[in-house]
Amino acid sequence: MKKKFVAVSALLIIGVAGACAPQPTIETRQQILPVERGDLVVRVSADGSLVLPEQRDLTFATAGTIKEILVGEGDSVTEGQVLARLDTVDLERAVADAEQALRSQELMVRSLEIDLAQYGRDAQAAIRNAEIELEKATD
User: Fold this and answer.
1) Closest residue by Cα to residue 93 from 64, 69, 70
2) pTM of the predicted model, to two decimals?
3) What are the beta bridge partners of residue 12?
4) Rounded CA gap, 46 and 37, in Å?
5) Average pLDDT along the chain
6) Helix, strand or coil for residue 27?
7) What separation, in Å, do the N-terminal and C-terminal C-alpha atoms of the chain show?
8) 124: helix, coil or strand?
9) Is 97 exposed, middle or buried (0-12, 13-18, 19+ CB in 10 A)?
10) Which has more confidence, 32 or 126?
């Protein structure tokens, strides 16, 4: 037991001596640089393939002949961008014909209103005449 005590004591003394020994200092280097304000630019270079976010077939509410195409197949477009122009000569002619037909029908309506007013006056006169004749006949 005495040998164990001596061995443990020796280990304890060695451990305490090692802990108390001066530690090597780690030298830290500091570098001071001036700071400047500016825009941070980050660039990323990569390889890959692009996929269209959206592709649509076009349909139109109005039939007609295309006069001018302003974009090509595969071109990127934005909402509201004009893609093509129609030849509007036939459409403009149809609008002019419809406006003329409308004016003609409006004139016909005015004429019929005048005739109706005249028929109303004639009917009122006929009623008055019939009432007068009735009075004469009953007197």
Assistant:
1) 64
2) 0.42
3) none
4) 29
5) 84
6) coil
7) 167
8) helix
9) exposed
10) 126
Residue with tokens 């630019």: 41
Q: Where are the alpha helices (DSSP H) in the chain?
A: 2-20, 89-138
What angle is formed at CA 74 by the lines to CA 71 and CA 77, rounded to 5 degrees? 55
46, 52, 94: which is closest to 74 by C-alpha?
52
In sequence order, the β-bridge partners of residue 84 are 69
Question: Do the beta carbons of residue 63 and residue 91 sit within 8 Å?
Answer: no
pLDDT attached to residue 21: 61
Do 85 and 67 touch, CB atoms closer than 8 A?
A: yes
Are 59 and 79 in contact, with CB atoms under 8 Å apart? no
Span 74-118, pLDDT tens digits = 888 888 899 999 898 988 999 999 999 999 999 999 999 999 999
d(C-alpha 14, C-alpha 7), whole Å = 11
Question: What six digits make up the tokens of 87?
Answer: 């030849």
Q: Quick check: 84 and 68 in contact, CB under 8 A?
A: yes
